[in-house]
Amino acid sequence: MLRLMIVDDEQIIREALSSMIDYTSLGYEVIATAKNGMEAYDRIRDDYPDVVITDIKMPILNGLELIERASRIDSRITFILLSGYGEFEYAKQAMTYGVRYYLLKPTDKQELINCLDTIREEKKQKKVQQKAEQALLLKDMQSPLEQGLLMEALDQPDNFPQVFKKYQGLLSFPEKGLYACICSFVEETYLKSFLKDIVRILLSCGAESVFPVIYVKNSALFVLSSPTLAHQETIRQSLEELHYPQQCVTFETSFLHGDTSEDLFAQIISKISRYERILLIRPETGETRDFHNNMAAPWRISKLREAFTASPAETDIPSLLDSVFTPSMTPDVAKNIALGLFLNPDNSGQEPPLDIACDFFRRLYSCTQTSEIRKLAEIVLLQEKDEAASSKGGANISLLKSYVEAHLDCETLSLKWLAENYLFVSVGYLSKQFVKEEGIRFSDYLNKKRMEQAIRLMVYYHNDNIKTIARSVGFGNNPQYFSQVFKKYTGYTPTEYIEREGASASS
Known about the structure:
21 helices
């Protein structure tokens, strides 16, 4: 269901728009109504609607100002603008904000239905596109995720079921239907030729490789789908017929099976765990990861984990990270560590939701400096630190409040941005948790903190600096809107408040 908000300063119109259509049958849920632009803006920051139907002429914030401010905190909102015949200039201005849907008052029911139908189909297509983009991102992430699975599994053999579950969906492993082929006596000298032959053999028999080749001390292991006996026999014969110059020993093949993919990988981990050096090779490209002795080996993540879990509440996280994220560390190594921390925050075995995981991956792999990556790792550990002292929700709220206190001047601060780019949690979950923990909506909390800061700043500024105060508490170049919010919070305009406080001080 798409989330719909209706905004109009006339109650009769709000009620008419709310009741004139069976929104549910069109795939919409009316989540809120608002009587002016300021109220609507606060609700948008709390309730993140997909579509907003709004009037142009409204008190405090008009429709255009609402669209301009809301678009900066969430560009994915689609607006339907209600206008009169004499408001063409407003409509022209709205086009600069990307508004494409206009309805004349009084609103025609069928025209509104047509708009909503079109928007729903557009949103559906965007969702399909988003899924495709996520798939591409996961494809780009495949190598570090594959490495992460083996690293964690080797580092936590007693916790393998939980480890596997966290990676299974991210790597698109089926529940059943995989098997592994082990080819022995493959000397590293001939490994490149062997990999080329592997690609050719699998292609010829229609078998599909679903994991890079794992190479340990003259043995190559590859994981395949389509586990038919005919495939196995073809692969066996083809491999044992291979011969390279100066090769003295004939290759030997064997197969591993499991009732589930988890069972199969448990067997694989058991077989490779005793080897010090492990190569992970993508045969199509030759991309090779020698990760067991790599700088990003599990001991670094284990070091962080052991130090942190021993006494999380007392842990000095910056100092702990300084001991691992050294100045000489490359961004690639830092990314592996941050990824391991994100995917392994506890022993719950829960795979992070796909949207949240992709948000983190996107943010992580956009970083070019080790210092940026270290900040992401710090967020992960800070969440865990607060979780140790309270609930998970409490941890997120504590971090959120700290961030808000430090960024009150940020005009585009919103719950949605904090959820997706700072805490990497569902915005719906965060919104509910915030109300549960604080007893108020996020927008009310944010406005309260901003007004408290504005009052503190008034000690240093005078009437002629209201614009400076407005910018300092996140209202940008809109002192009028700041004044309206300030009056709602204190009962006075900024000028009246300053004069009142001045009079009190002199008496």
